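Input/output pair, single chain:
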Amino acid sequence: MVEKKLRLGLPKGSLQEATFRMFQKAGFKVLLSSERSYFPSIDDPQIEAVLLRAQEMARYVQDGALDCGITGNDWILENRAKVIRICDLVYAKQSMNKVRWVLAVPQDSPYRSPKDLAGKRIATELVNVTKDYFAKLKVKVEVEFSWGATEVKVNAGLVDAIVDLTETGSSLRANKLVEIATLCESTTQFIANPVSYRDKNKRAKMEQIALLLQGAIAAEGKVGLKMNVQKKDVEKIIKILPALRKPTISNLTTEGWVAVETIIDEHLVRNLIPALKKAGAEGIIEYPLNKLIY
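Output:
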């Protein structure tokens, strides 16, 4: 009997580059034959990948067209999808960091709280989440779908407020908008269809992918550091090292010397290596990390 492949949805668009890069670090080579292709090849015969917009991913995973996929928590909420959340994939670079959907109005607007918008019009791509938010407040508003350039609509007087995605708030400030509420926070999620997740083989494959992706993300911004140290200088060296945990110390064949190895944040290296050298460390080696499994 031919084993069924795991149908994996990968996000097309803003998350695509970061996702492909993380899969590469996790040990999976994902390639597209052309920019127009929606079926990337992956060097794992147990996986069949397809590219979809993150906005649609949760719906197709819920319906079983896909066994699992990567999307934002915001789109899970927007689709009101019943899926298994396997793990967060939070990485503070390349569009995989935590973001917020906020309610924003012009700086000179009289509206200063969500309740002030009763009877007003709000534009957003996150329609269902916005409706649910105001329903909980028992505030009646008109919510319309926005295809993009949402900030322009409120400044042009087409709508009274917007619900838009923000990371730092710089785009809102540039458009002379001020946020008055946060509707939800969102991180990138690895999700699964509940039926597929109950399948022993598929679940094992999903958990393998999740473990390796989390390891790849955990290794970002960190490096390994190895050095030789005289035993008399070990305590001095350890005090300098901002170790992830306690550094690994092993004896060398040379009497009175040990090897010290640890993992540190990469940005600390340029100041740390001179200090280690001054404290007596020799043969200092810095090396990159692909994965860090806790």
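The mean pLDDT is 92. The chain has ten helices and 16 strands.
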